[in-house]
Amino acid sequence: MNNPLLVSSGLPSFADIRPEHVAPALAQRLQEARDALERVVACGESPTWENLAAPLADALDQLDQMWGVVSHMNAVVSSPALRDAYNTGLPLLTAFHSDVSQDARLFARYRALRDGTLFVTLPEAQQKAIDNALRDFRLGGVELPEPQRVRFKALQEEKAQSSATFDDHVLDATQEFSFLVADEKELAGLPADVIAEARVQAEKNKQQGWRLTLLAPCYRPVMQYAEQRSLRAALHRAYVTRASELGVDPAHDNTALIGRLLTLRAEEAELLGYPHYGAVSLVPKMAGSVDEVLAFLGDLAKRVRPFAERDLAALKTFARETLGLEALMPWDVAFASEKMKQRDYAFSDQEVRAYFPEEKVLNGLFRVIETLFGLAVGAAPTETWHPDVRHFELRDETSGDVIGRFYLDLYAREKKQGGAWMNGALPLRVTRDGMQKPVVYLTCNFPAPVDGKPAIFAHDDVLTLFHEFGHGLHQLLTREPTPGVSGLEGFEWDAVELPSQLMENFCWEWDVVEAMSGHVETGEPLPRELFDKMRAARNFQAGLHLLRQIEFGIFDMRLHATRLVPNARAVLNSVRREIAVVAYADYDRFENGFGHIFAGGYAAGYYSYLWAEVLSSDAYGLFEEEGGVSAKTGRRLRDEILGCGSVRNALQSFIAFRDRPPQMEAFLRHNGIIGVVDETVNEV
Ligand SMILES: [Zn+2]
After folding, report:
1. What are residue 439's DSSP bridge partners?
2. How far apart are CA 30 and CA 64, in angstroms?
């Protein structure tokens, strides 16, 4: 049978893939992987890298690469049949991976390899990959005696189920509320498209008037623009009580689920022999301990708080003097902020957009990468999954050797998932055919070209492109082909955003922006004056914004850093009393919708956003010291961080790059948290 998904090496011909190829390809790759697993556990010889880790990794690579293509296609050129095939295959794949991680025979072989005399003679990369594998086996509960192992598995299932229900409740609670407005005057201030959509929603529900909802495209503009204060208050109350006992449908109250999830996590930690779930979460991360994370957040809070107070004081003054709002209520904050931003930094996104046509931006980005890392980027046309997609090669500037390849799929279109992301398609590997070069997919959702004119990007889009490219470079510039520690594999989760956020900084360098901007009609670069306004607006209310992130981070860590399950609301209230400067409504039930930590992967990990930004800012500080797009510093970043995979720890790599441990100064400076705040000054 001729199945394009079953190529022996490289990537398949995307155009030939049909939904009916998915199931047989998955079945075959799964069977091969199971056979490989049985072979390595049945092997009579004492375990070596070559008879254990290598053959298993080969089989898992084949499975991952095939499924990577399927899941990529499902995300960017989906169809009902493809989605069905994907959804049918996914549980089979998940079950297989869970079987592998729970396989006591495999664990025993790995442990024998680790404890044997051979281990110290292995290359460092293989040692690290084996240690990582053992760590993941242990966190997967494989070492537990039989009754506990069964309990552990049940815990995992209930956790997954409870998280999914938490998410469903938030989704249902968001959708079940609506607010009918009878008189258009009450909608004053709202953008015309929001009003039109509200009208459509009312008609759809056979109602007269305008129907407002809590979905982001309606809720956000109401909070930012609606002049009618009572309208903002009504929607605000509905929003912050979603999925709580105060919400529309008490069946969607998440309060009990929060307690249940915390209990399950605490039990998991106890089974694994850790003092609490916070400690479990940190095992594969860069942060060393809960105390270290809390000290980091506490220190940050101290530095940021005066700036948040200054932001709030300025906002209150503006609201009183300009908007006549004597007391600034929670439902006034976004509204007053938007008005103040317009007063202080008036420029439109549309105006900026005209200066960033696609080719100019791409050439600017490629120039930066070429200079930093000694590369040449060139188009390498090939067959793809959609005519809009482009394919490029990254070559060594001196030798001309291909380092890696990437696909750019930039425009929003139907049947493509929203957002922006980077996916590895092929990792760097030694194969029978020689060295397999890494390949990545870079996917964005920017506006497509209209009427034959070039696509034009907002500055935010340019930031997104640089961000995703940073992730891509981490995968493409790796020198390490060992499975498990190559590129992003095994890299500490709380440091993963280092390269991506670092790349964003170049979009705020005047030289880079000047070179990558050119007005669609005149070709003129972005005016310096407009750029300066954009830079000033970048840190608008940064103090308030950061303090809120710190509040979430401390709340999350305190919830998970005790053996006894705490009351989430009481913890949040006490964190707010200590940290927050803005007042919250007494009915605020933020925690009942906090999907990051109750439904997503951020439990005892929310601090990672700030943690990684401190790293990326500090790393970028070296570029600033060397004058921006510095080839010398770029080579160093490639040698000490991007190239190393996870053979050594992120902290060791960081220190090798920066010649010292991370510091906070650059992060604070980039966010405008600098200088002494004069407490008596309200206006800024
Ligand atoms: Zn990212």
Report:
1. 405, 426
2. 10
Question: What's the pLDDT band for 1 if we cut at 50, 70, 90?
Answer: low
Q: List b or e across 454-463, with b for residues whose CB sees 16 or more CB atoms inside 10 angstroms.
A: ebbbebebbb
Q: Is 386 helix (H, G, I), strand (E, B) or coil?
A: coil
* 494 and 377 within one domain: yes
- Name the token pair of 207: 């109602």
What is the structure's pLDDT at 682? Answer: 36
In whole angstroms, give the CA distance from residue 618 to residue 593: 33
CA 566 to ligand 1 center in whole angstroms: 32
Are both 456 and 357 inside the same structural domain?
yes
299 and 375 co-located in one domain? no
Q: Are residues 29 and 135 in the same domain?
A: yes
Q: Catalytic residue among 197, 268, 370, 468, which?
A: 468
pLDDT, tens only, 530-560:
999 999 899 999 999 999 999 999 999 999 9
**Three-state secondary-structure class, residue 223:** helix
- Containing structural domain, residue 129: 14-143
Q: Write the single-letter amino acid at 27.
A: A
The residue behind tokens 């060393």 is 288
Whole-number Å distance, alpha carbon 206 to ligand 1 midpoint, is 42
Neighbours of 400 (CB within 10 A): 8
Does residue 665 lie within any of the structural domains?
Answer: no
Task: Summarize pLDDT for 559-601 with one digit per residue, the tens.
Answer: 999 989 999 999 999 999 999 999 999 999 999 999 999 998 8
Distance 471 CA to ligand 1 centre (A): 7
Does the pTM of the predicted model rise above 0.70?
yes
Sheet holding 402-411, edge to edge: 375-379, 390-396, 402-411, 439-446, 421-426
CA–CA distance, 172 with 152 (Å, rounded to integer): 30
How many CA within 13 A on the CB side of residue 437?
12
Query: Ligand 1 center to residue 609 CA distance, Å?
Result: 10
Residue 116's domain is classified under what CATH number?
1.20.1050.40
**Burial tier of 278 (Cβ tally within 10 Å: 0-12, 13-18, 19+):** buried
- The mean of the pLDDT values for the chain is 94
* 626 part of the active site: no
User: In the listed set 192, 221, 242, which residue is the last one of a domain according to the structure?
Assistant: 242
Distance 617 CA to ligand 1 centre (A): 14
Tens-digit pLDDT profile for residues 209-241: 999 999 888 999 999 999 999 999 999 999 999
**Whole-angstrom distance, CA of residue 205 vs CA of residue 203:** 5
Same domain? For 321 and 342 the reply is yes
What single-letter DSSP state applies at residue 77? S
The string of pLDDT tens digits covering residues 596-634 is 999 988 999 999 999 999 999 999 999 999 999 999 999
Measured in angstroms, how far is the CA atom of residue 501 from the centroid of ligand 1? 7
What CA–CA distance (Å, rounded) separates 208 from 442?
45
The C-alpha atoms of residue 104 and residue 142 are separated, in whole angstroms, by 6
C-alpha Rg value of the chain to the nearest Å? 27
The confidence score (pLDDT) of residue 114 equals 98
Q: Give yes or no for a contact between 82 and 73, defined as CB atoms under 8 angstroms apart.
A: yes
The residue type of 423 is N
**Which DSSP letter does residue 589 get?**
-
Neighbours of 115 (CB within 10 A): 10
